[in-house]
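> forwarded from #structure-qc
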């Protein structure tokens, strides 16, 4: 398929991929019945989007992108890394006409997290959202950071808007952005060249790329969508070489090597240098460097002559209003096993699901009666509502009580909703299935564990914690400071570190907010020592009980009046192996330079 790409044949002579290397495709559904996939090791993961192949553009896009990587050697489409393992993670659905319905940044974050949990080493995202500021939703930022922590590389399309602009996620730190070039190595007119791409983007073939067509046959398409899987496939091949040599896979080193070994474009009159990003994909250069001593040497090569510029972020092709916070494909511009645990924090809400259900409630309620009054008089009606857990007014889960204690759970939800002082609720449970809301949004279902459901306000929780501490009676300056520090800690978790509560790190962090007494011991001591909270970190605990999953929540404090003083670090350990996390041991502390 891509035999004209210099260096690819030489790389194929070394490897066609290793099944121990996993590459995830976050795209439209894929027609896995296409003959080019016969023999490919592909697994479809269930998401909020149907994975069923259709004749529509979503399947056309997803099938084409997947075939560029996983098309088998003797088939009509020769993929880049056909022997690697693949994960198909649908995120795009059919839109109107020849367009796709974009997914939200929150849903993209879910899919990224799911791919990492399923063992992905590389994630291909041939899509994105056009942006001016380069900032993403906090949940997507967390998902990108989760990839970094687990050494997973995201390769994303730079977008097809033909401007000095950016798309998310391509412009986010640690992502490898891919623009499109023609057969002569010149950037295609529609390929974006935003500032951030000058330091983390490269060009790859993106014109008339051969790919599989749903139902059989092949088709050629152009766009950064189809340049992106070429680069993802190359990364997978290089990871396979590392595996074959007994080395640990290092996607970050490969990303750096690809960027630093890229070569400049052949400049033509009127071509702005920045359109070439950091340069063109240079497999020949990589092959030479591999022969000289492996991938570690590649990052030392400085063949690029395009200056790197300052950093900002984003990507995509369909131009959408930024406030929509949605990611679209760039072409037009957990499977099985253990149940997914969650420990989520948010605000409680309700949804009717449909206009008919809303009207039935309206007609059943007496004139002037509120929904809360109606539920108090008719508690059984709570089961006809869709209860939601929201972050900043955006539903992230539908709460669906099940089992013998479902009535108790519904009663607790009604109590939470009726309490006007409640700001947050904690919902531990199991994630599975999805529900469509009245707005048309589809959200995953969380089946709650009633014994871990709590509600609170920041002020009330801080007072409760202070009540357990030996503080002087009456309102003192010390009490005011401690209360302020506790509220700062909780608000940092709610806003700065807000998350979906599905990774072990997120569950440990969220549990630390509901078990604030342990954290408050550290806060009280640090406040008395004139220190304030700086950072919150969650790390895998080096010591843990057998068959447990333990994480250390670390609070770092500094002296704002004296930066020469050493920091004070407090650590407590949370076991998240069960649906209800538990803390282990006492709070430990030490000084750190």
């Amino acid at each position: 398929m891509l035999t004209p790409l210099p260096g690819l044949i030489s790389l194929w002579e070394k490897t066609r991929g290793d099944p121990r290397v996993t590459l995830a495709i976050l795209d439209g559904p894929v027609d896995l019945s296409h003959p080019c996939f016969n023999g490919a090791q592909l697994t479809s993961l269930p998401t909020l989007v149907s994975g069923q192949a259709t004749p529509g553009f979503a399947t056309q896009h997803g099938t084409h992108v997947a075939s560029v990587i996983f098309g088998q050697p003797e088939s009509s489409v020769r993929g880049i890394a056909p022997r690697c393992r693949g994960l198909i993670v649908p995120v795009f659905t059919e839109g109107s006409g020849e367009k796709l319905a974009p997914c939200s940044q929150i849903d993209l974050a879910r899919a990224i997290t799911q791919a990492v949990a399923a063992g992905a080493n590389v994630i291909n995202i041939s899509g994105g959202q056009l942006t001016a500021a380069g900032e993403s939703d906090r949940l997507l930022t967390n998902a990108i950071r989760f990839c970094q922590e687990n050494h997973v590389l995201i390769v994303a399309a730079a977008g097809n808007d033909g401007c000095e602009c950016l798309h998310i996620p391509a412009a986010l730190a640690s992502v490898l952005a891919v623009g499109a070039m023609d057969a002569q190595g010149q950037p295609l007119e529609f390929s974006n060249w935003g500032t951030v791409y000058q330091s983390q983007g490269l060009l790859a073939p993106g014109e008339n790329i051969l790919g599989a067509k749903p139902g059989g046959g092949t088709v050629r398409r152009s766009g950064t969508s189809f340049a992106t899987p070429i680069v993802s496939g190359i990364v997978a091949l290089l990871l396979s070489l590392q595996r074959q040599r007994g080395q640990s896979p290092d996607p970050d080193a490969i990303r750096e090597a690809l960027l630093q070994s890229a070569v400049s474009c052949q400049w033509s009159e009127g071509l702005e240098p920045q359109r070439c990003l950091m340069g063109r994909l240079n497999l020949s250069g990589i092959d030479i460097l591999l022969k000289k001593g492996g991938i570690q040497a590649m990052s030392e090569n400085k063949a690029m002559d395009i200056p790197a510029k300052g950093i900002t972020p984003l990507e995509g092709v369909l131009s959408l209003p930024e406030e929509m916070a949605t990611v679209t494909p760039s072409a037009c511009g957990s499977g099985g096993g253990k149940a997914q645990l969650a420990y989520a924090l948010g605000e409680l809400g309700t949804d009717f699901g449909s206009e008919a259900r809303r009207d039935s409630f309206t007609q059943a309620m007496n004139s002037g009666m509120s929904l809360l009054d109606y539920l108090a008089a008719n508690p059984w009606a709570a089961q006809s509502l869709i209860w939601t857990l929201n972050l900043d007014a955006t539903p992230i889960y539908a709460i669906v009580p099940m089992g013998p204690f479902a009535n108790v759970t519904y009663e607790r939800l009604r109590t939470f909703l009726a309490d006007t002082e409640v700001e947050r609720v904690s919902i531990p449970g199991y994630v599975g299935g999805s529900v469509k809301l009245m707005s048309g949004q589809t959200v995953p279902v969380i089946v709650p564990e009633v014994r871990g459901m709590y509600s609170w306000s920041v002020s009330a929780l801080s007072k409760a914690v202070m009540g357990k501490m030996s503080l002087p009676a009456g309102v003192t300056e010390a009490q005011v400071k401690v209360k302020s520090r506790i509220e700062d800690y909780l608000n940092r978790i709610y806003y700065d570190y807000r998350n979906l509560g599905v990774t072990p790190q997120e569950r440990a962090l969220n549990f630390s907010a509901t078990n604030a007494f342990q954290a408050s011991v550290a806060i009280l001591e640090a406040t008395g020592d004139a220190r304030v909270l700086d950072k919150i970190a969650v790390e895998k605990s080096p010591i843990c009980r057998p068959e447990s999953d333990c994480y250390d929540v670390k609070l770092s404090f500094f002296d704002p009046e004296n930066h020469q003083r050493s920091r004070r670090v407090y650590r407590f350990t949370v076991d998240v192996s069960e649906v209800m996390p538990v803390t282990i041991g006492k709070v430990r502390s030490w000084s750190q330079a």
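QC bot note: The radius of gyration is 26 Å. The chain has three domains: 15-251+310-329, 340-456, 469-592.
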